[in-house]
């Protein structure tokens, strides 16, 4: 699993210590009272530890909050055991009225936020640009890509880009495995990061943590986290990999106000802090590639991005992610020389060598539990690929063998690799695109042009 390098103690060092008092949280008492009121609004009696867990604050902090609420006649307590930990709290009529007012203004009732300054400090400590940040070595890199049968030069360039944390452009024909490579590179990020559930900016709350982006670490790390006195408003996560595609628009690059809940949603590149931001299909977004690169390049160099809150006010937030761009188009058709200079590494991912293609085909057969046949593999190269002029792309073996499995499953038989099943899969994959199709809205990519395919011409 990615991000698990190093002893658990080192991984947990990124988590801030647990605040023992309201002052140590960096938050105003009034905000914690508001959050506690909303958490209690359901009407059921709630014990002190459970309420502390809902806000993800310490028992000491929660005691301060409840004492203030009792003094303000918002809350009453009843004994449920032998200690104050067994006290059952519920809102009074005054408390319910206040809670309703709080909810009308902002429905957020989750973990207490961290301050923007606290987030800045943690981002700086866990940045991959720190000299002592964990980095992958050549042996680990070779092992990770052993089954991809990449050209050695491509592996070396990918390894160097990970060492530098500089931006990366992967370009080449559709189906050459660029997106898969980018995902693997993201999984090779070393170390873990602390991620807040929410961030307080002035009087506004930005929801930040996303379980689909901020993945949990190993069970060993989680157990260690629970045993230490750490700030529960943060979660220990693998370094994030945020992937965007053609759906990316200008509006997605800034904070989005959720009027229904009264909070802001963090933009994707902000959530990628400490990890990797992958932009797939560069050139198909509703933002020009050069504009997209320029939007992020300067903030990355400065380590700070400017986001806009309601009313046009700008706030400076940390921006520390590795940018990875993926495109099927020739880079010169998308970016001018000035923009290209701002990209750290430009790596062409093209067709495989015949030897690597054979090895990859054999590996995919093994994964799908299909008996490999050298004669059928030879037929694929000499009687299908060669006459059609189709390059030996990394995605083709998996696609063809997957279709063989589909046809076999439909017929109720076990999949077998034969010339007949291979040609059936080939036709189903390439019929209708023998000459390649290009988007009318963009210049044609030089990688996506193919010659005629004799097998398809027999259809």
What does this entry look like structurally?
Residues 164-353 form the AAA+ ATPase domain. InterPro entries: AAA+_ATPase, P-loop_NTPase. This is ATP-binding protein. Keywords: ATP-binding, Nucleotide-binding. GO terms for molecular function: ATP binding. Strands 4-7-8-12-11 form a five-stranded mixed beta sheet. A five-stranded parallel beta sheet has the order 10-13-16-5-17. It has a three-stranded antiparallel beta sheet with strand order 1-3-2. The radius of gyration is 27 Å and the shape is elongated. The chain has 20 helices and 17 strands. A hairpin with a 2-residue loop joins strand 7 and strand 8 (204-207). Helix 18 crosses helix 19 (419-430). With 459 residues, it is an alpha/beta fold. The chain is 42% helix and 15% strand.
